[in-house]
Amino acid sequence: MTKRRTIGVLSRATGVKVTTIRYYETIGLMPPPERTTSGQRVYDADAQARLAFIRHARALGFPVETIRELIALQIDPGRDCDSVDAVARKRLADVRERLEQLKALERELERMISACAGGRVGSCAVMSALADHGQCLHDDHGHAGGGTIATAT
Amino acid sequence: MTKRRTIGVLSRATGVKVTTIRYYETIGLMPPPERTTSGQRVYDADAQARLAFIRHARALGFPVETIRELIALQIDPGRDCDSVDAVARKRLADVRERLEQLKALERELERMISACAGGRVGSCAVMSALADHGQCLHDDHGHAGGGTIATAT
DNA sequence: GCTTGCCTCTACAGCGACTGTAGAGTTTAT
DNA sequence: ATAAACTCTACAGTCGCTGTAGAGGCAAGC
Question: Among A101, B24, B77, B124, which has the minimal tally of Cβ within 10 Å of its Cβ?
Fold first, then answer.
């Protein structure tokens, strides 16, 4: 007996919000499930496994497009593992790059905060550190407008 | 003689793209500058300082709303420095939290990749690690649907 | 004066990955 | 029978920009 899951049950089982599950369906990441006569979605164990896979990959920061590729590979399990490995390695490289950026941010924020003596805003070290024309971080203020600002948080 | 800067000059001076400067104007982060008779924007040194401040704060990951608050504080420099300090500390806490998350991702990705023996996709360790129902990272799969998936990269 | 080539203008759509809302219908529990 | 909880669709909004289209402006060289 294959368990019949409504979208809410599936949501609680996987930790993916109901609206997000429907969104994944609209973008083709989840296949359209069967419906009851009244039109409610009914999911099986395969759907749950797939959603769990997606959730885990998203938690690791893989973009949706990459997950789409991984699923395509999954469906064709005879192929070489290299592409999967490459995707994971690429992701690891991205994560490490972001880690370095964040560590730099951490250092600068620490420096700013420790300099704050708690006076008035007019003489606040944090403020003057910010007003300082971006010397500390990545000061490309001379030549090119390569203004890729660090993607937030 | 106050230098008259067109938007392109300002852009090159600060490393903020022309379109982004105009965007900051529409959202009220930059004040509307003077215009030539033909309608082109003309900026002064104050505008450049303000834009440099914004750029630096954005590079540190402060959200635009927070920068708006900081600018409001800046305009009123007699007030206590506490709120500025608090904003910076909050940001530091956010950065550190994100650092921890990313380190966890790094560890899990390393583990996945080192387990990959390079066979076929059907038996790929990376794939089965992903299919594994989210045990490793933050397995809130029991009770609540608190599905805040780690914000990507 | 005229052309060339870059610069600037406005207005609006699109990105990624969802989230929120409105308004209506369905299922389950009491 | 009724209330509570769930589900449906469709679409707008989020954040911080980026890209596009089509039109007009400006300095330098001829």
Answer: B77
In a domain, B81, yes or no: no
Number of domains in chain B: 2
Mean pLDDT lowest among A63-67, B63-67, B141-145? B141-145
pLDDT per residue over B21-79, tens digit each?
999 999 999 999 999 999 999 999 999 999 999 999 999 999 999 999 999 988 887 88
b or e along B14-28 (b: 16 or more beta carbons within 10 Å of the residue's beta carbon)?
A: bbbbbebbeebeeee
Claim to verify: residue A51 and residue A11 sit in the same structural domain: yes
Q: List pLDDT tens digits, range B92-132.
A: 999 999 999 999 999 989 988 888 776 677 778 888 888 87
Report the alpha-carbon distance of residue B31 to residue B27 in Å, rounded: 9
Q: Does the residue B66 lie in any domain?
A: yes
Same domain, A57 and A104: no
In a domain? residue A118: yes
The answer as to whether B25 is a domain residue is yes
| Across A74-78, A82-86, A127-131, B34-38, least confident range | A74-78
Cβ within 8 Å of A, B 80-119: 80-82, 84-85, 88-89, 91-92, 94-96, 98-99, 102-103, 105-106, 108-110, 112-113, 116-119
Instruction: Count each helix (H run) and each strand (E run) in chain B, helices first.
Output: 6, 2
Full residue range of the structural domain in which residue A98 is found: 82-131
H, E, C per residue of B106-136: HHHHHHHHHHCCCCEHHHCHHHHHHHCCCCC
| Distance, Å, A128 CA → C4 C1' | 45
CATH number at residue B25: 1.10.1660.10
Task: Give the mutation candidate from B64, B102, B120 for the A interface (greatest A CB count, under 10 A).
Answer: B102
- ipTM for this model: 0.80
